[in-house]
Each structure stands twice: as structure tokens, then as C-alpha cells.
Amino acid sequence: MSQARSLSIILPVYNESQTITETIQQCVDYMKQQSVIDEYEFLVVNDGSTDASLKILNDLSAAHPSLKVLSHTSNQGYGAALITGIQAAQYERILLMDADGQIKLGSLSDAWPYVNDYDIVSGYRARRMDSAYRRFLGKTYTAFVRLIFGVKSRDINCGFKIFKRKFLDVAGINTHAGAFYTHVFINAQKMGARIREVPIQHFPRAQGHSTGADFNVVTTAMSDVIKLLFSKKK
Predict the structure, then answer these.
(1) How far apart are CA 11 and CA 116, in angstroms?
(2) Who has the most CB within 10 Å: 50, 156, 192, 206?
(3) DSSP label of 114
């Protein structure tokens, strides 16, 4: 079996002007220092940010040739941003990673050794550094999708997952918000995907505002889950 030596890294961005420069710089520095991946690209998807995120990303792109900026004219949702990046990715292995700085690209050192033997290498936050409310939402949601959909994940919405392209067929994905990973895992498990989970370090948010527990985000995710339930019944 040939060893994987290339990677597309996709980061969705929505109003992260306070953190995105440091996040991107850490990512670029890590990839320059590592020695197991020869070819890589960063696909940063600006999901209709209303702050200075897009300008900052364009400036960073001019400084870093490996960074490509894609942009939505309006906010379409977390999953929709990931889909835009996936459709533009050129390599066989694709890393989906949050851009808020709470997960570092250095976690790749723990995950990459498994990419040749597994179709999905899925991170889980060994110690989640969020509020009690967000931790409760995450655990409740993960337990729900494990019970109802049979999704085999201990932290389904952890934003650090490496996929073989075959298992990221997004043509039929219609859950563009918080249930995106659930939909992807349902499809991948039907295809017989081999999944390996690895613990990753999670950091407190240094700046900016997390939208994951906002009312609109939660209700949109619930709508996505309802779509999946109807699809499951059919």
C-alpha cells in the first residue's frame, strides 16, 4: 500500500477576525516543520462573514501560496462552508478542521499515522474546554445520534476529521448546518468505512464569539436532524 503524502485542509470561517490570523499562521508553521506530507493546500471558506475576516484572509493568501480563499456572499451554515471546500479540494485525503483556534493542526501528528489503515480518522476532544452548557449540548447530541442513527462516534461534531475522498461524497448532503457530520457518517458507515477515533487536545477560546450554541444555530441543527429522521424512515 502506498503511503499517503498529500492533504487538503479545509477551514470554515465566520466572523473570526480576532483569531484567524493566529490560527492560519500556526497551521502554516506546522506544515512547514512536519516531514510526512509533501503536498498540501489550505482551503479557507469565508461563510459570509460581516467583520474583517475576508480582508484578513485575502491578505494572508497573498503572503502564503498554499492558502486559497473561497467565499460565500451570505452566511450559509457550517456544513455548507465545508461542502464548498470539499468540492474544491484536489487531494485524496481531506482534513476538516475548525478555524476558531480551539483545535491546533498539531493534532495531525497523532492522527496521521492511521490514515493508511482507516478511511476516516476522527478526533474527539479528550477534555473539552467549553462552557458546561456547550458540553451538555455536545454530549446530548452525540448520544442522540448514536441511539437514533447508529452513528459510531464519541464526539460527532468535533471539528477535526480526516477523510478519504470516497467517503466525503457530498452530492446528496442536504444538512448544511450542525448535523453535517452526522449525515456524512451515516453515509460513510453504509459504505463500510473503517473509522479510527483519536483523542486530541482542545483549547479554550482566546477571543471572539462561538456561534455553536446560538439559538439560530441550534434550531437549524434540529431542522437538519428532522430531515435525517424522515430520510431514515423512507
Answers:
(1) 23
(2) 156
(3) G
Architecture field, domain 6-233:
Alpha-Beta Complex (3.90)
Give every CB contact of residue 25 below 8 A, 6+ residues apart in sequence: none
pLDDT in tens for each of the 234 residues of the chain? Answer: 567 899 999 999 999 999 999 999 999 999 999 999 999 999 999 999 999 999 999 999 999 999 999 999 999 988 999 999 999 999 999 999 999 889 999 999 999 999 999 999 999 988 776 678 877 887 888 888 888 888 889 899 899 999 999 999 888 787 766 788 999 999 999 999 999 999 999 887 665 555 554 556 667 767 777 777 766 655
Report the run of H or E that residue 12 belongs to, with start and end: strand 6-13
> What residue segments make up the domains of the chain, in order of their start?
6-233
> Which residue bears the cell 466572523?
15
| Nearest of 33, 39, 36 to residue 8 by alpha carbon | 39
The one-letter amino acid code at 82 reads L
Q: Which residue is listed with cell 473570526?
A: 16
- Distance CA(18)–CA(164), nearest Å, equals 32
- Return the percent helix, strand and coil in the chain, to nearest 5: 40, 20, 40
Phi-psi region of 141 (alpha: psi -120 to 50; beta: other; left: phi over 0): alpha
| Grid cell in block for residue 146 | 448514536
Grid cell locating 177? 448546518
